[in-house]
């Protein structure tokens, strides 16, 4: 309803469709072609093809049109298939059937047809199809439980509440909802509901995140709920946290583009030089129009400048082969076929899930060898998200629970653990401690469904909690004889050691929060005593208890923390009636406050949680993933910086970092969290600025000192709230200043831990590092849907096939079953793929320069007439047949260092970092090598031809013989050059290298030995056979091949190899001299004694 004096304009809301695909049937062709022709090379070959079609050029359009068509088609098919899979996934979500309540009837609809304002009914274990406000629940207390594993990675249950006054009858409810604009923060929501009842004044109810059920979350332990849709489709919090898939391009591709520009400049300058010299030469009398070749009338009337332009284009087409179109085909093939080696790797097979690695994007294989920053999720990635109670300490006495499987059951009074209990702290203290564990939490007992006639045995009883460690503590108390039976309408029941049921009234819960780092409950026993039980981190409990009690327990807590366990201290306090009345009124007043509610509650909490008695401490373990610590250590050894980004609490994440050896004992931790910003008498922003400056100074000093001295290692801890202050400061200047300081601190720290992160914040962090100075290569690894945005943002995204659904796997570039597989994926596969493709790129440019340089030099001897040096068949076949297979085999099979050594010696990874093999230095080396070889080929044969009588019968060779000798030397030299570089010989290498050379000889004989009916002129008729009848030709071919490769052979023979890495191998001796230290280009198989043949 709207006031009579106001015009009601209905707002426009989007529908509930989710779209993650990139193309439609209609725009696929134009959009895909546009994206492909944005590549410099594709666009360039299109232009050359059109020139060959339009202008009369020395070579046929087929020579450049066919390879281009092949590349475009293969890429389009690959990208079309990937997008079809995305369409399929979207349809599954959009066509999902949901129940909508309309006019008192239940109607089944497709999810995409939900509109804002529809009332939906959702049943247990169903996923919410959009963001809903909870109106009604089947539970008596108006609550429902949900899991948000697919949103923030937490698999524990969260409690949500219905809006008061809507419970009774949803069908007759008349209300309007006002709420904020859609925004991606999962933990924030502000709104209000006006409820209209029979001409009465409307009732106003405030709405918060506890009333909002998010799309993607799942209903648990509640039979059904009704809710009203507030955000739909692409406006839901889940969709706002999802970032569209952009085309990822590898560093190698960027290097190829840079090198292409250089070669394009060489090509244009060659064409310009030849065109200029042609017209200079023709300007001399008698040269342009000799007596035996007069111009036609049409030729005389043609415009001089048009002629010049046509000649320029003809030279461009003639020298066009310096730009290797077939390189793109080979690179595509190498990436596509190379990705199978990752899928086929038996080490990646996991027997539990019966699956191996999965490659979703083959374009990034070499990027795995360039990673500088690793961003990892914690829950489910570093840890198994599986809490286990390890031990506790009561009044300084240690109680370690032995493996329960060796005992008959865990609750018998006479068994081991309990007997040991009685001998130590005294029965009264033990029972008080165990009561605290049973009462101080927010755990619910899972309701048994109607089908289960026999209730489950106590040890298999299901618990639901907002944190898995709370369940671990309740189960820990069960082992020592105290069982929590559940909470019913503010009454908590527990079963003590004597099998008596104890009942407590739950008066107040003082919730956990990251600033206080503790939680408390106030309960009243049947005897009338009012007790406060409190549990929390040692740093927040110790100052609030008697100091003489602290020393007994501190030692245990520190020892447990060092072992990587999560520790909590437990304290209690008796409240007198006056104290309780005061606390009760303070809490009620604070909870009704509309402004500064949190601060007022905090003041009451702090007031009551003082002067407590410390009883003991607990140690809980979140099991790490298999080999998580070893994997992280290897990645750090390889020079990668590791950032842990998690939605979890700081204490938990910190202990995981210690357990994974990301933080060492001597690491100094710098904390930038809400807690450290709570500084009395200072604005938060000023305190943030001061802390950033202080930390920056500290870490900078450390990095200035020589690293060989044992300088201080720093770990940096930041939380989501502080990060949003850094990234979204009130003024633009401050934001940039804070960002720069923040980044510099992070870069000087060995490990960075970001906790309490929303999914989009994870992506923001990755983006910030990715766009920082030097554009470092980033890798994200995660297992839940909350990690999807950071997986998509990073250069390389890795999904782990974990417990939390498959969204991370679907959106990743590579998926692996376990975190431990990341080590081999990067240190072995990544390293080898990068080396292979870098060599492939450099080699391609080199062999095409060798190919075209003699063609350019030939123009100086043929009057710049665009006369080809090589036959058309040789021009077309050089890159496609004669030299393509050896380099493809090399780029798939080469192992310049064996995989075992790469895995044992992580530092080898650093040597190829920062795109080391595709920098300008190596590129210049290969280019000069190409120029040297080109000059040797051309002038070597030219010197031979200075002697006219090369055949027995005194006849001279013609120009096609000249070109064929040059071409023969060229094919043999570039192929043998690759053979010298090959370090890992297999039968395939032998087959393609010697096979290519044999095929060239066979083809030349065959092509020149038959009269082909479809050819108007046959330039090479018997030229090759005739050439090989001359001993001089044989001699010059062998001599020039040896002369070309001589510098490299001499270098290898005379150059002493650098000492291998001074790192002991597992056998105790130094590693084999098969070291990556020597440049890859400078190796032969002569010093390779242990290669596979």
From TrEMBL:
CC annotations in GO: early endosome; endoplasmic reticulum membrane; plasma membrane; recycling endosome
PROSITE patterns: ATPASE_E1_E2
Residues at which Mg(2+) binds: 377, 379, 783, 787
Membrane topology: Multi-pass membrane protein
EC numbers for this chain: 7.6.2.1
Positions annotated as active site in the UniProt record: 377 (4-aspartylphosphate intermediate)
Cofactors that this protein relies on: Mg(2+)
Main location: membrane
Domain P-type ATPase A, residue spans: 94-237
Residues in P-type ATPase N-terminal domain copies: 11-64
Stored InterPro entries: ATPase_P-typ_cyto_dom_N, ATPase_P-typ_P_site, ATPase_P-typ_TM_dom_sf, ATPase_P-typ_transduc_dom_A_sf, ATPase_P-type_domA, HAD-like_sf, HAD_sf, P-type_ATPase_IV
Positions contributing to ATP binding: 377-379, 470, 512, 535, 566, 646-648, 756, 762, 786-787
Reaction(s) catalysed by this chain's protein: a 1,2-diacyl-sn-glycero-3-phosphoethanolamine(out) + ATP + H2O = a 1,2-diacyl-sn-glycero-3-phosphoethanolamine(in) + ADP + phosphate + H(+); ATP + H2O + phospholipidSide 1 = ADP + phosphate + phospholipidSide 2; a 1,2-diacyl-sn-glycero-3-phospho-L-serine(out) + ATP + H2O = a 1,2-diacyl-sn-glycero-3-phospho-L-serine(in) + ADP + phosphate + H(+)
Record keywords: ATP-binding, Cell membrane, Endoplasmic reticulum, Endosome, Lipid transport, Magnesium, Membrane, Metal-binding, Nucleotide-binding, Phosphoprotein, Translocase, Transmembrane, Transmembrane helix, Transport
Cited Gene3D superfamilies: Calcium-transporting ATPase, cytoplasmic domain N (3.40.1110.10), Calcium-transporting ATPase, cytoplasmic transduction domain A (2.70.150.10), HAD superfamily/HAD-like (3.40.50.1000)
Keyword check for NADP: no
Subcellular location: Cell membrane; Early endosome; Endoplasmic reticulum membrane; Membrane
Similarity comment: family membership: Belongs to the cation transport ATPase (P-type) (TC 3.A.3) family. Type IV subfamily.
Cross-referenced NCBIfam families: ATPase-Plipid, ATPase_P-type
Protein name: Phospholipid-transporting ATPase
Organism: Amphilophus citrinellus (Midas cichlid)
UniProt lineage: Eukaryota, Metazoa, Chordata, Craniata, Vertebrata
